[in-house]
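Subject: Predicted fold for ATP-dependent Clp protease adapter protein ClpS, 102 residues

User T.R. writes:
Posting the sequence so we have a shared reference for the thread.
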Amino acid sequence: MVTQQGNEALLEEEATVLKPPSMYRVILLNDDFTPMDFVIFVLQEYFHKDTEAATRIMLKVHREGKGVCGVFPKDIASTKVEQVVRHARQEGHPLQCTMEEA
Ligand code: TYC
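User M.O. replies:
I've generated the structure tokens; pasting them so everyone works from the same file.
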């Protein structure tokens, strides 16, 4: 029997097969106040970068104004943005973190 519930499950399955989730770049923005060491810490802690990669990304943001921390499905990108901004504010830093569709 094709129940309404079964039908919705089928539609959901079909949508999953047809289109992979949209991906989002998580972006750090430069400012004049957040310490370089804090930005490196954020990249290591929330984006699993080693010291070398974290330093490279931090310096790119410092010199060019913005840089990509990683690319994630929408809900994961959004959670990381929230976590980074909350942590920065707790430490009194104005660091801005945002996301954009990849
Ligand atoms: N520009 C900051 C400084 O000179 C360092 C910095 C780098 C801040 C990257 C934010 O996303 C950022 N202390």
